[in-house]
Design goal:
two-stranded antiparallel sheet, Glutaredoxin, alpha/beta, 9 helices, about 15% strand, about 250 residues
Length: about 250
């Protein structure tokens, strides 16, 4: 049987197009994993547990400056830097700054995939007098998520989830430079929170004024209903709208 030369000659081009499409699709679906875990980039989400077994994620710290520290009890440099972490922790209020010290220890008496002995992170923290939260990730998934090369490794994350500093190895977290950086991030977060609150208040007033004007057509029932909900008490329906509703009573 004679082959169609034009059809066979198109096959290499078809395979090339399909291969290119597969590469583009793979890049699209893995674009989050390809993003660098470094300063200037969003911090990856994670899922670990606290000492009670409750889940903790990056979203748990939204609106706060976060020092995410990945460590283990068998790590000497981790032990050396943790007292400075405690001093940094004590320097700022809890509603503005938090530490997530994530232990990758295998269970006590076991060994991890690299052969490191398991440990008791909570007893370790108590022995050092640490009061910041100790989180647990015995599977070590956090290392893959944050692409660490060892322990300790730390990430200073802003209130909006952006990484501002990455440190591989131990450091003095209570140094003047680090305290100043955290202070600036905390102040920036406070300004952002105040601006967001003001914008929400303005939006509520605009909606409230519109609803208050409806009272002209609906009598006092709408105004009384809003009062019962406590909205008018807080000027949630807008001062202009409240005045318009009150004018109907005269």
């Amino acid at each position: 049987m004679t082959r169609n030369p034009s059809r066979s000659s198109r096959k290499p081009y078809l395979f090339a197009v399909l291969a290119a499409a597969a590469i583009v699709a793979a890049a699209w679906f893995s674009r989050g994993r390809m993003q660098p875990v470094a300063s200037g980039f969003p911090a990856p989400d994670f899922a670990v547990e606290d000492e009670t077994g409750a889940p903790v994620t990056l979203e748990s710290y939204r609106g706060k400056v976060l020092l995410l520290n990945i460590w283990a009890t068998w790590c000497g440099p981790c032990r050396e830097e943790m007292p400075s972490m405690q001093r940094l922790y004590d320097a700022f209020p809890r509603d503005r700054f938090e530490i997530a010290a994530i232990s990758i220890d295998a269970p006590f008496g076991a060994r991890d995939a690299a052969g490191n002995p398991g440990g008791d992170p909570l007893a370790f923290a108590d022995a050092l007098g640490l009061t910041f939260p100790i989180l647990l990730n015995p599977s070590g998934d956090i290392q893959r998520t944050y692409r660490t090369t060892g322990v300790p490794e730390s990430f200073l994350i802003g209130p909006g989830g952006l990484i501002y500093k990455k440190v591989a190895g131990a450091t003095h977290w209570d140094s003047g430079t680090n305290i100043e950086l955290v202070r600036r991030l905390v102040e920036a977060g406070e300004r952002e929170a105040e601006e967001s609150k003001a914008e929400e208040s303005e939006a509520e007033d605009r909606v409230g004024d519109a609803r208050g004007r409806e009272c002209k057509g609906n009598g006092n029932e709408l105004f009384e209903e809003e009062m019962m909900k406590g909205i008018a008490m807080k000027e949630g329906i807008g001062k202009e709208g409240i005045d318009e509703c009150r004018s109907l009573e005269s």
